[in-house]
Amino acid sequence: MYRYDEFDHAFVAERVEQFRGQVARRVAGELSEDEFKPLRLMNGLYLQLHAYMLRVAIPYGTLSAKQMRKLAHIARTYDRGYGHFTTRQNIQYNWPKLGDVPAILDELADVEMHAIQTSGNCIRNTTADPLAGVAADEIDDPRVHAEIIRQWSTLHPEFSFLPRKFKIAVTGSPNDRAVTRGHDIGLRMHRDLQGKPGFEVMVGGGQGRTPIMAKTIRNFLPVDHLLSYLEAVLRVYNQLGRRDNIYKARIKILVQSEGAENFAEMVEAEWLKIRDNALDLPVEERDRIAAYFAPPQYENLSDACPELQAAMAAEPRFAAWVDSNVGDHKQSGYAIATISLKPHGGIPGDASADQMEAVATLAETFGFGELRVSYKQNLILPDVPKADLLALWRALDGLDLGTANAGRISDIIACPGLDYCNLANARSIPIAQRISERFTDLRREADIGEISLNISGCINACAHHHVANIGILGVNKNGAEFYQITLGGVANENAAVGAIIGPAFDEWRIANAVEDIVDTYLSQRRPDEAFIDTYQRVGPQPFKEKLYGPDQARQAG
Amino acid sequence: MSKNQNATTNFLQAITANRLSDGYVVYLTARGGWSERIEDCRAIPDRGDANDVLRHAERQAGDDLVVGPYLFKIGVADGRPAPLGQREILRTTGPSVGTDLNLA
Ligand code: HEM
Ligand code: SF4
C-alpha cells in the first residue's frame, strides 16, 4: 500500500496543528462562525441536523487492517460507536464534538489518514474501482494513477478555488465499477493496438439536480500524459466555468454549453502548450509509486477447489453468499469477497466499532491485511483463498455481516437523508430499511437477480439515485415526505440517467410501489434477462400501468 | 396538534440553533438561555416580537454559544410546545432510525 512520504507527514501534522488553533480561537470567540466555517469545511467538518459530522477520506477505497482499527477506535472513543461508509469512499462520523476533532485528526494522521479535501471547491478524494489490483478483468491497477492524481491535486495552488467541487474517478478495467461517467472527470482504462495501457477521458459527468453522464473527449490518452492532460482540462474549466451561479458552476454545465467537441478542442489546444513541460511524471517516478501497489506474495493455489464445491453443496446459505458476494480474482485459487453492510432492515453503510475491528482481523486472517470500501457502501476483502471462504462466511455470519445480497435488490445505496442531513427533504434510511425487509427471502432475491436500488434524500443525489435501475428521490410536499421514482438508470460502462415514472408516493406506499415494479419485471422478463434488460426492451409503460392503473398511466403519458 | 392550528395566522414560533461545542440542537428559553429540551422553549406569538427575539439570539450567537439560530413554527400538543414539519420533529427527537442502539 501507498506510504506517506515525509512531506505528506509534515504537511498533515501541520494542518492538524493549524486546525487545533482555529478551534481554540473559535471556542474563545476570536473567530466568528462565518470565519470558522470555511476552515472547518477544509478539514472535513460539517454541521448537520443534530451534531457535527466529520468526513474522512479513504483514498481510492483502499485501507489496511491497522487503519480500519483506527476508524473503529475513533468511532468508539469520540463518537457513538459507529460510522457510515459513503458512496464517495469516505467514512462519516455523525457525532464528533468540536473540541475533540483536532485529537481525532491526530489519531488519523498516525495511520496516514486525514479529512483534507473532503469538502470545498477543490479536487476531492479521487475514487477508484474497489476491486483495483485484484479484478480478473483488469488491465492495470488504477490506484497507481489515482495516487498520482492525489499527489498532483492535493493543495494544487491553481485548483484550490475552483468554481465548484471537482470529482475524479478512475477504473483500470474496461468494466466500470467506479461510475466514471458520473464524475467531473472519469478515466477508464483501455489498451492501444500495441497493448499499451491508456485512458479514455470522459468529462462533464455529475449527478445532483442536473444529472449528466460524462462525454468522451479523448478515446485514448497514453498513461504517461495523464497529469498534463488533466491539468489542461482543469485550466479550461477554471477559466471558463461559471462562478456566478452555484447551480451552473460544475464542469458538466460548461461541457454542455460549449458542446463536447468544442470543449475537447479547447483542452487539446491547452494541452499542446503544456504537454511537454515537466508536469508528467517520469517513468521512474511512476514505477516508484506503482511499487507500493505491487501484488502481495500469493501462494500457488489451484483454481479448482473441491472443498469449496462440497461446502456449497452442504450449506445452501453459504452457496447463496458465494453466488452473490464472491467474485473472480486475477490470481488462481483466490477470490474477492464482498462484505455486505446491508443486513435486511439495517442501515446501509453503517458499521459498528466492533464490526470494524472484527473485519480488520478477518482481513489479516483471510488475506494480506488489506480492505476495500466500495461506492456501493460495502466492504471488500480482496485476497481470500477459495478454500477459506467457508470459514470467512461463518465468521461474517456471526457478526451480522454475512448477508448474501451484493448486487441484489436489498443492496440499497442510501444517503443519510433527513435523519442526519441538513440539506435533506425526506428520510432515506427508514425507506431503505422497509424495502429491504420486503426481500428477506434469499431465493426470491436470487430470482430477481442483478438490480440496483438507490435512495437519496434530496436532489443532490448523494446516493446516486439517477443511475440506479430503480432510483428513489425524497421530496418535500408541504412539510411531508414523498418519494419520486426513476427507472432505467445504469451505473456501469453503459451509464444512463433514469427517467421519472410518474407522481411520487408517500412513505407508506413507496415499498409497495417497489414491489409492484419488481413484480412487473418478473412477469415481463424473458429467460436470462436482468431487470434493466427487460426495462430497456419493454419501456416504462407496463410499469406505469402497474403503479398507477391503466387510465392514469395513459394520462401520465 | 391539528392541521387547523397550523393554518391559523397567529401561530407560535420558537428559536432553535445548534450548540457550538457539540452541534446539538438547542432551544431559546424564556429566560434567554439555551436548553436541549423543546419543553423549555420560549413560545413567541407575534411576528414582530419574534424577529426582535431572533435578533437578540443572533447577538448571543455572536457570543459563541450557538450556531445559526432561526425561527420555526410550533404548535401546542397537550399544553406543550411541539414542532411542526418533519424536519423540526426529527431535530427534537434525533434520527428516527436510532443511533448507537440499533447496531450489533
Ligand atoms: C450529510 C452531509 C452531506 C452534505 C451536506 C452533502 C452535500 C452535497 C451537495 C450539496 C451535493 C451536490 C453538489 C452539486 O450538485 O454540485 C452533493 C453531491 C454528492 N454527494 Fe453529498 N452530501 C452529504 C453527504 C453525502 C454522503 C453521505 C454521500 C455518500 C453516500 C455523498 C456523496 C455525494 C455524491 C456521490 C454526490 C454527487 C456528486 C455529483 O453531483 O456529481 N454525500 N452532496
Ligand atoms: S442527497 Fe441530499 S439528503 Fe442525501 S446526503 Fe446528499 S444532501 Fe443530504
How would you sum up this structure in a few lines?
The complex is a heterodimer of chains A (557) and B (104). By secondary structure, chain A is α+β, with helices and mostly antiparallel strands.
Provide an overview of this structure.
The complex is a heterodimer of chains A (557) and B (104). By secondary structure, chain A is an alpha+beta fold. Chain A folds into 4 domains: 6-110, Alpha-Beta Complex (Sulfite Reductase Hemoprotein, domain 2); 142-291, Sulfite Reductase Hemoprotein, domain 1; 306-398, Sulfite Reductase Hemoprotein, domain 2, CATH 3.90.480; 413-555, 2-Layer Sandwich (Sulfite Reductase Hemoprotein, domain 1), CATH 3.30.413.10. Helix content of chain A is 38%, strand content 17%. Chain A is built from 18 helices and 21 strands. Chain A has helices at residues 6-27, 33-42, 65-78, 101-110, 142-153, 226-240, 251-258, 260-274, 283-292, 306-314, 316-325, 353-365, 389-398, 429-437, 442-448, 510-524, 531-538, 541-556, and strands at residues 45-47, 52-57, 62-64, 82-85, 90-93, 127-128, 168-171, 185-191, 197-203, 215-222, 326-328, 334-339, 350-352, 370-373, 379-385, 413-414, 453-456, 470-477, 480-487, 499-500, 505-506. In chain A, the strands form 4 sheets. In chain A, strands 16, 17, 18, 19, 20 and 21 form a 6-stranded mixed beta sheet that branches. In chain A, a hairpin with a 2-residue loop joins strand 18 (470-477) and strand 19 (480-487). Chain A starts with 5 loop residues before the first helix and ends with a helix. Chain B has 104 residues and is an alpha+beta fold. Chain B has one domain (3-93). Chain B has a 5-stranded antiparallel beta sheet. Residues 1-9 and 100-104 of chain B have low confidence and may be disordered. The chains are: A alpha+beta (557), B alpha+beta (104). At the A-B interface, strand 13 and helix 14 of A face helix 3 of B. The complex binds protoporphyrin IX containing FE (HEM) and iron/sulfur cluster. Protoporphyrin IX containing FE binds at residues 46, 48, 53, 86-88, 92, 164, 206-208, 250, 415-416, 420-421, 423, 460-464 of chain A.
